[in-house]
Structure formats: structure tokens, C-alpha cells
Design goal:
By secondary structure, the chain is mainly α. α2 crosses α3.
Length: 99
């Protein structure tokens, strides 16, 4: 819970995961300027050894490595339609009616 007062801040830290959910929605909606977004990869961290990262990529596979070390949201392998296809299917001109 966050008590909204003057100068309140909510800081969210997460590893990228599947292209779905609250963190993904916030990160991809760059038109919303109320959030400051940072994406930092393992390659940008001076403490990470590049050879070790390359070994991890070979061991984990590219998809898992991209999520864990490159902070890239991805579609689950078993998804029938990827996030890009679903987002392209949204027509912003259709008005939502709530009951």
C-alpha cells in the first residue's frame, strides 16, 4: 500500500518475464509519462564477466538469457499469439462500454 502524499514515490524493481502483466504494461506504455523507466542489462554492469555471461547464454538458452540478463520481456513459448500480434489487433477507435 502506498500513502499518496506530496512527493510520494513508488519504486518497482523487476526482472523482465513474459510479455504480460502489470510490470510489462507499465514498461511498454511509454506514452504514460508518470513513470520513469530504466532498463539495465548485465552487460552494463562492470562486475559481470563477459565470458561468464556468454557461458550462461549457452547454458540457459537465448530466450531465458534475454529475460534474466538483458531485461527483455518475451512471449511464452506455448502462447498461440504473441503480444505484438494481440496489441496490433486492438482498435483504439472502439469504445468500451462497461456495465
Amino acid at each position: 500500500m502506498l500513502a499518496v502524499r506530496k512527493n510520494s514515490r513508488l519504486i518497482c524493481l523487476t526482472s523482465a518475464s513474459w510479455a504480460q502483466g502489470w510490470a510489462y504494461d507499465i514498461f511498454r506504455n511509454t506514452a504514460d509519462t508518470t513513470w520513469h523507466r530504466e532498463r539495465v542489462t548485465a552487460y552494463e554492469c562492470p562486475r559481470q564477466d563477459r565470458a561468464w555471461l556468454d557461458d550462461m547464454k549457452n547454458e540457459m538458452g537465448e530466450s531465458a538469457f534475454n529475460r534474466e540478463f538483458l531485461a527483455l520481456f518475451q512471449d511464452p513459448a506455448e502462447s498461440l499469439f504473441g503480444a505484438a500480434v494481440l496489441e496490433a489487433a486492438i482498435d483504439p477507435n472502439i469504445r468500451v462500454i462497461r456495465f
